[in-house]
Amino acid sequence: MNAQGLICGATDVPLSTLGEAQAKSAEWLQRKQWSLVACSGLRRAQHTAQLALPNQSAQPFNGLNERDWGALELRPLDEQTPYEVTPPEGESWPAFCRRVLEAMNRLLAGHELPLIVAHSGVYRVIRALQTGTPHGPRIANAQPVLIEPIADGWTMKEIKENWIEQR
How many domains does the chain have? Predict the structure, then answer.
């Protein structure tokens, strides 16, 4: 759906060939033993986790699912409402944030360093916590981002393959 420029929130579509290649490009993540590999309940996130980390099983958490864009699902991206506006028949921004944060808090309470395979909307919820807004550039598909708590919020940075050796 990304390649076609369509809104694909809660619609459970498979990865494309390009999506599979992007997931495999993150295979270096398997060199780390994560306390948990968690993923969205949507099959594109589950398949991404399987391809990137073939030797570690991923646990699906529906709280990490992408936002339900309601009547806007599979419509062109230029029809997408601002994040703070509830799409027709869709999930409100506050409800989406609550769902994602409940899942994240549950994961972080029980696991020291979980790897989470989810969606850009989940990243936008975390960005909103960090910066006060979900708006900003999209992260690339299968781009690992390290999110760490600090005294007054969170830091977020894209990580590359040599990150594991530097840790």
Answer: 1
Q: Identify the CATH number of the domain in which residue 98 sits.
A: 3.40.50.1240
* The one-letter amino acid at 61: F
> What is the structure's pLDDT at 131?
86
121 located within any domain: yes
Is-contact 64 100, C-beta < 8 A? Answer: yes
> What domain range is 114 assigned to?
17-166
Q: List per-residue pLDDT tens for the chain, 167 residues long.
A: 888 999 999 999 999 999 999 999 999 999 988 999 999 999 999 999 999 999 999 999 999 999 999 999 999 999 999 999 999 999 999 999 999 999 999 998 999 889 999 999 999 998 898 888 999 888 888 888 888 777 777 778 888 887 777 66
Within-domain flag for 33: yes
* Token pair listed for 166: 């530097």
Q: Which DSSP symbol is given to 55? A: T
129 domain residue, yes or no = yes
The packing angle between helices 93-110 and 120-131, to 10°, is: 90
Q: Which residue has the tokens 């290649």?
A: 21
Q: How many Cα neighbours within 13 Å face the side chain of 74?
A: 3
Q: Rounded to the nearest 5°, which phi and psi values hold at 131?
A: -110, -15
Residue 81 lies in a domain: yes
